[in-house]
Specification:
208 residues, alpha/beta, Beta-carbonic Anhydrase, Chain A, 2 domains, 10 helices, 5 strands, 53% helix
Length: 208
């Protein structure tokens, strides 16, 4: 890839935005008020705004390997805190994707070095749902299901945070679990009943 071409692409993008709206960058610089916090995977094929048709300023985005919400990861915890407490987002979306390299790596019995502690979160999700997953004989279908299970577990991790618990109670914040299918471009809503999961974990994780 020619890095210089990226600067040319930027100039073309600027010209196109100004052609459509001469005040575009003045508006962009005036501040942000997104209604959505999107937590997704770092995979280069899964661009958050593009797959769901959002424009700059409409979503606060955090991406990491396998869309994990790890309670000791200060990056994702800071993003959640800022988005929920200060930007007052109305929705938190955790979006995984089929054919996720991180999930596939977590299914393998291999020493992956620095990735080991990160992928352990997915292996923990596997352990918690082992009976269901091991009952799926087709390895590709099991892989797809672990992607979905991982999204559900990360939604639960979102619900474990104090700032989210307060926002759910005080202003009706909602948490969603989605999966993007690279094979056809569709976004699948896992229809996670976040209120049910919140009630299930309240005895131990209640912080509000």
């Amino acid at each position: 890839m020619n890095i210089e071409q990226l600067f040319e692409n930027n100039k073309q993008w600027i010209a196109e935005q100004l052609k459509n709206d001469s005040e575009y960058f003045n508006k962009l610089a005036s501040g942000q008020a997104p209604k959505i916090l999107y937590i997704g995977c770092s995979d280069s094929r899964v661009t958050a705004e593009e797959i769901i048709g959002l424009k700059p300023g409409e979503a606060f985005v955090h991406r990491n390997v396998a869309n994990l919400v790890n309670n000791v990861d200060l990056s994702v915890m800071s993003v959640i805190n800022y988005a929920v407490e200060h930007l007052k987002v109305e929705h938190v979306i955790v979006c995984g994707h089929y054919n996720c390299g991180g999930v596939k790596a977590a299914m393998q019995s291999a020493d992956l070095g620095i990735l080991n502690p990160w992928l352990r979160n997915i292996r923990d999700a596997y352990r918690l749902n082992k009976e269901e997953l091991n009952a799926i004989e087709d390895i590709d279908q099991r892989y797809d299901r672990l992607v979905e299970v991982n999204v559900k577990e990360q939604c639960i991790n979102v619900l474990k945070t104090a700032v989210v618990q307060r926002a759910v109670k005080d202003r009706g914040l909602t948490v969603h679990g989605w999966v993007f299918d690279l094979r056809n471009g569709e976004v699948k809503d896992l229809n996670i009943d976040f209120q049910k999961h919140l009630e299930a974990i309240r005895e131990i994780y209640r912080l509000d």
